[in-house]
Each structure stands twice: as structure tokens, then as C-alpha cells.
Amino acid sequence: MIFIKYEKGQGMKKINAKTLAGFMELTTEKQIVFNQMKSKIEQVFILNGLSPMDTPILEYSDVLLAKAGGDTEKQIYRFKKGDNDVCLRFDLTVPFAKYCAIHQNSLVFPFRRYQIGKVFRGERTQKGRFREFYQCDMDIIADGELTSQTADAECIGVLSQIFEALDVNIIIKISNRKIWKGFFDCHNIEEENQFKILNILDKKGKISDDAMILELNKFSPKFAKQIFEISNIKSLEKLFSLNIKNSVFENGLEELSSVFEILKLLNIKNKVILDLSIIRGLDYYTGIVFEAFLLDTAETISVGGGGKYENLVDNFSNRKLAGVGVSIGLTRLFDILDKNNLLNFKQFTTSKVAILPLGNTLSECYIIADIFRNMNIPTMVLSFDKTFKQKMNYANKIGVQYLMVIGENEINSKTFGLKNMLEGTVFEGSLTEITAKLGKSK
Amino acid sequence: MIFIKYEKGQGMKKINAKTLAGFMELTTEKQIVFNQMKSKIEQVFILNGLSPMDTPILEYSDVLLAKAGGDTEKQIYRFKKGDNDVCLRFDLTVPFAKYCAIHQNSLVFPFRRYQIGKVFRGERTQKGRFREFYQCDMDIIADGELTSQTADAECIGVLSQIFEALDVNIIIKISNRKIWKGFFDCHNIEEENQFKILNILDKKGKISDDAMILELNKFSPKFAKQIFEISNIKSLEKLFSLNIKNSVFENGLEELSSVFEILKLLNIKNKVILDLSIIRGLDYYTGIVFEAFLLDTAETISVGGGGKYENLVDNFSNRKLAGVGVSIGLTRLFDILDKNNLLNFKQFTTSKVAILPLGNTLSECYIIADIFRNMNIPTMVLSFDKTFKQKMNYANKIGVQYLMVIGENEINSKTFGLKNMLEGTVFEGSLTEITAKLGKSK
Fold first, then answer.
1. What integer pLDDT is reported at residue A129 of this predicted model?
2. Which residue in chain B is spatially nearest to A265 when comparing CA positions?
3. For burial by CB atoms within 10 Å, which of A33, B127, B165, B269 has the most?
4. Which of residues 213-232 of B touch A (CB under 8 A)?
5. With a CB-CB cutoff of 8 Å, which residues 164-203 of chain B face chain A?
6. Contact (Cβ atoms closer than 8 angstroms) between residue A285 and residue A296
């Protein structure tokens, strides 16, 4: 045993119980829905044959910051413990890169993994920003290059399946960094300005068209208008018709065509469209990028996305591992859906049934609870020392779906009543009939 | 979007990819088993109608350290971020107490919760000790006192169900702090020495009987032998026959009798015995305490336990909330089972089926994968750009259970082959027959 010594409350001195700002802590009825969402996402990952991964919350600072620079460092929770300079992870990608670098010789490629876990960013708390949040990631990594577009399309497919499982309407917008890279190179726009232009395009929808053209003018007066027009293109045919002769551009166009072809083969129920204003950060992605947006909110809100990168482990190894990944910020997604009243919070318990012993029937109540649990029906016995009325009150308050009061009458007659607490109806029957009814009900 | 700026790998300078000592990071085949264990534990909590809870990894230091003293502070990961003095949580109990103090007026009592999450203790890394580890906790909290022993017994029941679900043989040893408290008070042993004696009793099994009596002699020469004898008592009758006239002792005995009575009503398949040498830490528990020990290892290894406490929130509030809880250290449990060769690692994928497209059948392969996934059968399509032989090799290496090669022959004849990769057998049939077969297989 690892002992932690707990001191007794020092007399009357009480400490103010409070939670750090920017750290989500939910009440039970919301936590139940949050956990359901989390497990639906995990289930989609597993159904797609992705392997689980779990890496530490804490890592060496030089490892975590290998790939991060600039503003990132300010956001990081970094400190010393003994001789170690450590950080809380700020995403699941760098730990994944570290993992792949360590295990590169034993991994079987393509390596397909998912990971769901908390990450930390100590930025200023703003509306909708969290300092601790769950990220749900998947990646498909190749040894060398990913030569076909199946992995890209399958990642978009998983993203789509997840929102279908969550019953959330989205649209997935797809672009390719190579389109811009090719266009910029073709027109000799320097690398520094390329990044600045992408940064402006990333603001699409947040600033007006005029403001955007004005900004683009600063970095490429000659091509500002054309860049703006390309960012509005919604069809591959239009993009082809630009007839830009640049190998990177042409390759990007080919990849986009291929991805849309494969997407047709996948059973995707969400809308998937071309949108060249999708950028997804600045430096990380090198090919296909995609982003999911909510359809049922007034504002345009991004709730996940991903893309292709040329090299996962370049900070750790000379080996080249290309990949494509998806990331969903679950904490933020939950918060947005909650604030837009798109979630239903009904229950304060995971229990489907509460059994209320009346008189000396605790033994039988435990046996019946055991039968239900063996049928995968969550069950609690209201065995605590309160009156019948208080227990009925309790069952009502926690919002349990079904209540069974078991007294000696029920035991003797072998007929039980199953009360549907929402509808107020009572189903009467033998234990077998009750179990069958519970097993069938959602 | 929250952007993290990723810098490109700076030329040739590579960073050594490494993980902090004492932080478990598993390879895929082990991670799969670890996650299965975690989800089995969660399933038992849910089947018993416990509500989920999730609290931050980071908390204000004064909140986390409210209840901790002495050696605890040295173990804590504590640092400053901006103006905040913060800590990584070192258990799930103090955050739970904080939560209950914050929400005390909206909670419905008895409040029954479970929580599974990582906790952090920066102690020296020793054999079997982790600095980051999963704890799996449940608690049942009353508003005021817990007047009956049903909650205690039900907690022991959940502990038992968990190890049954994990298919791990344990014995659960039960004691009551009140037995010792009553005995000590009855013989006017001072409080300081009481703690020291309990600390010695806690070493039972780790030091010899003679060494124990010698140590006990230091703090209570008069009663050392009697204390040692009581610590060996294995039956309630024997304890009754001591005929100690002290209200705390008698109350403790009554509670023990009552717990063992209720345990008889519960369908507990593990061995449950009285063992007064069970102490469970020093200061925290005030009544019934219990601990689970592995039966299939050479050494005596504790793998979880819990007990009753008088007041959860005394450091935060004047309200009295008594409770009983269970805690299992999953990371350590996994490590022990692994080191004792009690776990089986067979698969490097969560996929049950791999579909290998032969020729131009990707579209059909995706459709079939979709059908399988809708039947809850994890499926991957080997769609990547490799040769048939390389794909067969891949399917073998990741240890997928079933392989389906789908060429134009299969599509035209509507007859498919499902290869059991372990047994080398092939089942032939229509898609419906294959789906049924997969649905039935474990």
C-alpha cells in the first residue's frame, strides 16, 4: 500500500472548496451525458479497428516542447520536480510522436491508434476555452510515405461516423495544403508571406470579405484577389479549370480527386464538401486537411478535424513516418452542445432500476438485483435506513427509470410490479417477465 | 480552434524520445488488456447504479492539501502557474470531498459515485510503485451518519464483483477500527501510542511474529501480547468471548456482525473473512475497513480495499457527511498480474476482422465493413498500398482473429471465406452466414 497520511480537520479552520477556473467539473446529470458521448466516440474508434494508446499526462519538457515554439511555451504548464523539468501534455500528438520514436522498431505499419485523454493549456480563460480538456485522437501512420488516399478518406469516414453516433449534424470541409503551396510557389510568393496568407484565410467567416481582401493585399497585392477567389471555390472542376502548371498544385488536386472518389465508396451520411479556406493550424499539416462544423448552431463552430502530415517523428528520429490523423475536442464540443441546448439531461443515476425492499425482504432484493446485473441491467437496492416515503422520494429525485417495490406479498405471490417512473404505468408479471421487459426497454 | 504552433524539426538536432521513470506506458498488446480491465471495472460500477464523476487533474494546493500532512506534501507535484499555487491530485478522495462540499445543497443523499482517473505521487520510484497511476474509486455518502451496515456490505460486494469480472482470485479481509479504538480506550492507552500500535499491526505478514511482539512491547508492554492475540482472531465468536466492556468496542463488534450477516445475503463468490490486522492507513477510516488480497501470487499482495469514514468534508464545511468507499489501484494491479504471468497478451489490434480487398473490390469491402460495424463487430479494411503477401503478413502480425479476402470471385459468387487466423480453418458462406458466425464468436 502507498500511504497518504490524512490529517484531521484542524478544529474550526475551514478551507474554501473551489475548482480552478477553466477546468470543467460537471454535476451528475451532465457527467452521465458527457461519459456517454466519450464512450460512443471510443466505440467508433474500436469498431474501426484502431488500437488503444495511453501516454503519461506528464512528460520531459524537452520532449514535449520539441515540436512546439512561439506562443505554445507560454500556454504550457511547466515546472520542476526534483531534477526533472516536466510539462503537462498540451496535446496527444507530441506524446504519440514520442511513443512512435521509442517503439519504431517494434511497431507494425500501418500503425493505427486512438487515444482519448486530458490535455492542458494554461491560456487565459475565455468563453468556450478550457485549460483542461479531453482530446479524442486517431492516427494512421505509415513506415515512410502514405502513398494512397485511403487512409485520408477513412479518417474522414471515422470523423463522420463519430458525429453520426453522437447524433450531431455536421458538415465536413476538405482542402489540401498542397493547393496553396503549389499556387504560392508558382507565383514566387516567399515562404514567410505564405504563412501569413494562410493565417488570413483561416479567418474566413470571422471577418468580412472586404476585410480579408484588404489583409491579403498587405502580403500579396498582386494575387490578393485571385487568392480570395480560389478560397471560394467549391468544386474540383473549377479548381482543374484554373489550369495551374505546378507539380505540387497538380499533385494536391490529384489527391483531392482521389479522396472524394474514395469518400463516395464509404457510407458517409454527413455532407462532405471542398472548401479551400480550411487551413487547420499553420505548420503541422502538409497535405489533405479537413474540418467538421456544426450545422445546428447559429454561429459557424468547428468541432474537430485533421489532416495529413509528412513526418511525425522528425524531432526525435531520422526515420520518416508519414501519417494522417483526426482530433476532436470533446470538452469544448460538450460545452457548445450544452450551451446551444442540444443535449438532454434527464437522469442523476446510471441505474435503470431501483429496488425498494418493504419489510424483511432485503435478501430477495439482493438476489433479484444480482439477476438483473447478470443481464447487464444497472440496478440499485434502496437498502439505506430511511422511511418508505423518503425512498420513493429518492427514486423520483435521482430520475431512475423503473422502480420495483418488493414486499412479502410480492415474494409470496411471485408476482412483481415494475413501475415506469416517467410514464407512471405499472407492468405486473413474474420475475422472468419483468427481466425480459427490462432487457428489451432502451 | 486553439492553435498550438508546431515548429519544423530544427535541421539535424534530434531530441532523445524518452518517458519519465515511474510512468507506465504500455505497448499495444498490453494496452488492450489494460483497457479491457478498466472497462470491466467501470461496467461493475455502472451495473451497481453508481453515478460517474470526473474532477480536474489540477487543483488549488490549499484544497488538495487540506486533508494531507506530513510525508504527503513531499510526494505531491506542486507548482505555481501565474498567481495560482496548484497541485496534481494525489488521490480521488480529496477532490471528491471538495466536490461534495461545493455541491452539498444540490446532492441527493445517499450520493453514490464512482470515479476512474489518474493520480500522481512523486515519490522515489521503487519496485511496483508508480508516480502516475489509475485509481478506481466508489463511495456511498450519507447526509449525516450511515446508520445501517448495508452500504459497507454493498461496497465489499462491489469489490468482490470487480475481481470476479476480472477473473482474479482474491480474499477479502474485514476489520473494524472501533475494535481497536475500544480496546485501547478501555485500557487507557494514549492516542499517540494507539496510532503507533496500529502502524505496527499494519506490518503483519511483512515482519515475523516475534518482531511484532517486540515492537508492540515498546508502546504497550502491558498489553502487547493481548494485542497480538486479538490481531490473530478470525471469528466473531472469539471476539465476543473476550467480553470487553466498552461501548466503542461493542458497537464495533455489532457492526462487524451486521456486515457479515448482510454479506451472507449478497451473492459473493470470493472468500470474505474477519482479520483484525487490517488497518488501511492511519487516520482516515473510523469504522469498518476491508482489504482484498491476491490468492494466486506467492507473496501476499493487497490490491484494493476501503472502509467507512465519519466525515468526508470536515476540512471544507461544518456539514457532516459520513460515507464508505472502495479504492482499487488499477495500474499496480495490472503490473502485479503482468509480472506474475497472470495476463494473456494476444492481440495487437481491437479489430476482430480484417478485410483484404483483392483487385478492384474496395467499394464492396467498405460496404461489408460497414455491415459488420453496424453489428458491433470491430473491422478494418486492409486498404493500404501494399502487396497481397505484405497484407497477409500484416494481418498475421497484428493478431487479428478473422481474415476475409474479397476478390471479384467472392463478389460474383456471393460466397465468402472467413479464415480463423488462430485455427487456420476457413468458414465458407453467404454474407448473412458470415455475419451470423462473427456475431456469435467471442
1. 83
2. B363
3. A33
4. none
5. none
6. no
Strand B426-429 relative to strand A353-357, pairing: unpaired
Provide the pairing of β-strand A353-357 with B402-406: unpaired
Return d(Cα B67, Cα B242) in angstroms, integer. 36
Residue with cell 505497448: B27
How many helices (H) and strands (E) in chain A?
A: 16, 16
A293 phi and psi angles, rounded to 5 deg? -125, 140
Rg (CA), chain B: 27
- pTM (predicted TM-score): 0.95
Say whether residue B265 is in contact with chain A using an 8 A CB cutoff. yes
Distant-in-sequence, close-in-space partners of A12: CB < 8 Å, separation ≥ 6: none
Tens digits of residue pLDDT in B419-436: 999 999 999 999 999 999
* 3-class state of residue A408 by DSSP: helix
d(CA A81, CA B131): 12
Tens of pLDDT, residue by residue over A25-35, are 999 999 999 99
Tell me if B385 and A148 make a contact (CB, 8 A cut-off): yes
Distance of CA B331 to CAs A23, A96, A430, B294, Å? 25, 20, 43, 15
Does A110 sit behind a cis peptide bond, omega within 30 degrees of 0 on the bond before it? yes
Give the count of beta carbons closer than 10 Å to the beta carbon of residue A298: 7
Residues of A in contact with B283 (CB under 8 A): 5-8
Task: Give yes or no for a contact between A285 and A307, defined as CB atoms under 8 angstroms apart.
Answer: yes
- Residue-wise pLDDT for B225-261, tens only, equals 999 999 999 999 999 999 999 999 999 999 999 999 9
C-alpha B168/C-alpha B163 separation (Å) is 5
**Alpha helices by DSSP H, A108-246:** 150-165, 177-186, 191-201, 209-219, 224-231, 236-241
| A20 close to B (CB below 8 A) | yes
Degrees, nearest 5: CA angle B234-B239-B242: 140
All three cell numbers of A262: 474514395
Rounded to whole angstroms, how far apart are CA atoms A90 and A67? Answer: 11
Neighbour-count burial for A147-174, b at 16+ CB within 10 Å, e otherwise:
ebbbbbbbbbbbbbbbbbebebbbbbbb
The stretch B323-349 carries a mean pLDDT of: 95
Closest CA to B371 of B395, B353, B358: B353
Query: Around Cβ A112, how many Cβ atoms within 10 Å?
Result: 26
- Cα–Cα distances in angstroms (integers) from residue B21 to residues A59, A81, B78, B129, B132, in the given order: 10, 12, 18, 10, 10
Q: How many CB atoms lie within 10 A of CB B424?
A: 7
For A180-236, how does the pLDDT look when each residue is reduced to its tens digit (9 = 90+)?
999 999 999 998 899 899 999 988 888 999 999 999 999 888 999 999 999 999 999
Question: What is the bridge-based pairing of β-strands A271-274 and A170-176?
Answer: parallel
Annotate A215-251 with three-state secondary structure: HHHHHCCCCHHHHHHHHCCCCHHHHHHCCCCCHHHHH
- Cα separation, B91 vs B118, in Å, equals 8
Q: Is the ipTM of this complex over 0.90?
A: yes
Indicate the range of A276-290, A309-323, A421-435, B241-255 predicted with least confidence: A276-290
- Selected residue with higher pLDDT from B325 and B297: B325
Give the residue from A128, A136, A164, A44 showing the smallest Cα distance to A337: A128
> Looking at chain B, how many residues does it have?
442
CA distance B10 to chain A (A): 7
Q: How far apart are CA B234 and CA B274, in angstroms?
A: 5
Instruction: Decide if A314 contacts B11 (C-beta within 8 A).
Output: no
Identify the helix (H) or strand (E) that includes residue B172: strand B170-176
Q: Collect all residues of chain A within an 8 Å Cβ-Cβ radius of residue B50.
A: 350
Residues 6+ apart with CB under 8 A from A119: A88, A89, A90, A91, A92, A132, A133, A134, A135
What is the β-pairing status of strands B288-294 and B111-120? unpaired
